[in-house]
Each structure stands twice: as structure tokens, then as C-alpha cells.
Design goal:
The protein has about 350 residues and is α/β, with parallel strands linked by helices. It has helices spanning about 5-10, 35-45, 50, 55-70, 80-90, 110-115, 135-140, 160-170, 230-240, 245-260, 260-285, 305-315, 340-355; strands at about 25, 75-80, 100-105, 120-125, 145-150, 175-180, 205-210, 225-230, 285-290, 295-300, 315, 320, 330-335. Helices cover about 40% and strands about 15% of the residues.
């Protein structure tokens, strides 16, 4: 009987949280504000030729390179950031190599590591859920070939210090260190996270990944960005499929990058919304993690499940993270628009009270 490779047969099926999503979906950290009207206008103006021809990602790489202050050779555009991560994992991890990351973090890291048959080495964060820098450094071995760190992190919303991240990059010169900056645009709370893009010139083993799925509101169009040393990006370009990014999103890229005021207004609203959530959780006396992202993680303990169910009855979906190591009893809530927050905040209050009673 036909069988796939052992590592593929051993994968657990991916259960998409997108199935049966009715109501306000605050469970996937999407933009509740939509996208730039200029991007929408560009979409409406697409011609038959725009879609009947194969896409040219090189134009997109020049635009993104300009925007980030990098040479186009240092930029690879990808089908969402998920593909960027997949390319790095596939390029650097052999079957017996180690993928290193700290829990809790983005669920795709272990999935992609398992898919290439790598040994997945997980370091557990402490009670504060901050990046366990010393423990990560201690687990770097000659077999460590990829280290993945989301900054700011999902699901905690916490940012790590630039100096700590650089220490990790310097301590693992034979490993590809991917700093996943999916939520970078939302930074700017007390901790002030900084990007590692300016450090790419000094570290040939460093990669920084970005996405248009969050602050730009283009999750459905699928556009990610992988940046790194030109020599390493060249290897990944050979591995990636030549037409990985579709022509529709490439046609909208210039408008998306040019509409800085859409992004900055959206980010300002997200910061205000997450402060509202944090204030409410403070009032309710529950533990939350101060967020640098477009979501907030809160610990509700034994009430978590009942809370999520009650929110669902209010037609608001939020995500139970109890199955994530270190996040037992935690729920992650995406920040909604100011108008939606007028319904979300009272619904949280009522669901919290209801969950306590149950
Ligand atoms: N990294 C992190 C930390 C994320 O949370 C996500 C999306 N939830 C991604 C990467 C993937 O984003 P994309 O939509 O660009 O594939």
C-alpha cells in the first residue's frame, strides 16, 4: 500500500479553527478593521491580464526591500509567513537536527519541525511566560539548526529584549535563527519591542519574518516576507516554488505599503482596545499579560472553558489556550474595533460572571 514518508504519516491532522465560525471572530488575531480602502480599490480595478498572467514576485521584493531599507536580494516574498517558516525549516533541518523554541509560542513551529522529521526541543517559560533566555542558551547544541522566536510572542503578547535575542543569534552561528515579527507593527507599550531587521547586516544566520495578515488586514490574500543575508535568501529562493505569491496580492502591494495612515490608525485603535481589555481584566482581578500585539492573554483558571462557551452564546469567538504548555486556564482574545468593543467588553463581564457561577 502506498505510504508517505514516516514523518508525514506520524503528523497529527490539522484541525482548522476556521470551521463553523459564526459571529464576531476574536479567535485568530485577524484584523477586525478590514484593510486599506486603497487596497480594496486596487482589487476592484484588476484587469483580466492581471489575473491571467503568472505573478512576478521580483517587483514585490523591490517594493518591500525599499520599504524595509533592505536590498531586494535580502527579501523573499512568501505565501503568508507560514510559508516563510516552512522554507527555513525545510532548508536547514535534517532528520536528526534540532529545532529549538520556547513554549508557549506559535503552534506552527512544532508542526513544521515535525513535518521535516526534526527533533523538536521545547524549553518551558516560567510563570511570567517571558522568553526564558538563559534556558534557551543552555539548550543550544551542535545539532541545533533552527531556533524560532516570535517577537512579540503569540499567545502571550509579550516582547523580548533586543539584546537577549542577539545573544541567542550570536550563540548559535550554525543555526538559522528566525525572529517572527508577525505582530511587530502593534509594538509600543511599556516594553517597546525593537525589530532585528537592522541587525541582518551583521549576522548571516539571522532571519526576520513579517506578514501582511495582521496590521495590514490582508490575511486572506496571503503575503509574508522573509528577510536575511542575501546568500541565505538565495538558497531559499531556489527551494521556494517560483509562483508562490499570487498576482492579486502583488498588484495591491504598492497601495498597501503606501497607505501608512491606515496602518497607524488601526494600530492606535488596537492599542486603545487592548488597554480597555487590560483595564477590565484588572478590575475583574484576573491575571493578564500586558500585550504588545492585537490580542490579550488572560488566565481564567477553571472558568476558562465555561467563559469561552458563554462568549459563544454572545456570538463572540475567543480561543481557549488551556492545551498550550504553561497556558492552562488561559484564553486569548483578539482586540476588536472601537465599535465592536462596545459589545465585547460587557459580554466579557457577563460571561465572566456566568462562568464563575457555573
Ligand atoms: N507567526 C505568528 C506568531 C502568527 O501568530 C501567525 C498567524 N497567526 C503567523 C506567523 C502566520 O501568519 P501568516 O498569515 O502570514 O501565515
Amino acid at each position: 500500500m502506498l505510504k508517505p514518508r514516516e514523518t508525514i504519516a506520524a503528523l497529527s491532522p490539522y484541525r482548522s479553527p476556521i470551521l463553523s465560525r459564526e459571529g464576531l471572530t476574536l479567535d485568530l488575531n485577524e484584523s477586525m478593521a478590514g484593510c486599506s480602502p486603497h487596497v480594496l480599490a486596487r482589487l476592484h480595478s484588476l484587469s483580466a491580464a492581471d489575473v491571467s498572467r503568472y505573478p512576478q514576485r521580483e517587483t514585490g521584493e523591490r517594493l518591500v526591500g525599499n520599504f524595509l531599507g533592505l536590498a531586494p536580494e535580502q527579501v523573499l516574498v512568501t505565501n503568508g509567513m507560514d510559508e516563510a517558516l516552512s522554507l527555513v525549516f525545510t532548508a536547514y533541518l535534517d532528520a536528526n537536527d534540532e529545532l529549538l523554541f520556547a513554549d508557549p509560542t506559535f503552534v506552527m513551529y512544532p508542526m513544521l519541525g515535525a513535518a521535516v522529521g526534526a527533533k523538536v526541543v521545547r524549553v518551558q517559560s516560567g510563570e511570567d511566560l517571558a522568553l526564558p533566555v538563559a534556558d534557551l542558551l543552555a539548550r543550544i547544541s551542535p545539532r541545533t539548526r533552527v531556533i524560532a522566536i516570535a517577537n512579540p510572542n503569540n499567545p502571550t503578547g509579550l516582547a523580548a529584549e533586543r539584546a537577549d535575542l542577539l545573544k541567542i543569534v550570536e550563540s548559535a552561528p550554525n543555526a538559522a535563527v528566525v525572529i517572527d515579527e508577525a505582530y511587530f507593527e502593534f509594538c509600543g507599550g511599556a516594553l517597546k519591542c525593537s525589530t532585528l531587521i537592522p541587525d541582518l547586516a551583521r549576522y548571516p544566520n539571522l532571519f526576520v519574518a513579517r506578514t501582511f495578515s495582521k496590521a495590514y488586514g490582508l490575511a486572506g490574500l496571503r503575503l509574508g516576507v522573509l528577510t536575511g543575508a542575501a546568500g541565505q535568501i538565495d538558497y531559499l529562493r531556489r527551494l521556494s516554488l517560483p509562483f508562490n505569491v499570487n498576482s492579486v496580492v502583488l498588484a495591491c502591494l504598492e497601495e498597501a505599503l503606501a497607505d501608512g495612515s491606515f496602518v497607524s490608525e488601526h494600530v492606535a485603535q488596537i492599542r486603545h482596545g487592548r488597554e480597555q481589555l487590560e483595564r477590565l481584566f484588572g478590575e475583574l482581578g484576573v491575571r493578564f499579560w500586558p500585550s504588545e500585539t492585537n490580542f490579550v492573554l488572560v488566565r481564567l483558571g477553571d472558568s476558562a472553558k465555561a467563559f469561552v462557551e458563554s462568549m459563544k452564546r454572545h456570538r463572540i469567538l475567543v480561543r481557549d489556550f488551556s492545551a498550550s504548555p504553561g497556558c492552562e486556564g488561559c484564553v486569548r482574545i483578539t482586540v476588536a474595533t472601537p465599535k465592536q468593543m462596545e459589545e465585547v467588553l460587557p459580554a466579557i463581564r457577563e460571561s465572566f460572571a456566568e462562568a464563575l457561577r457555573s
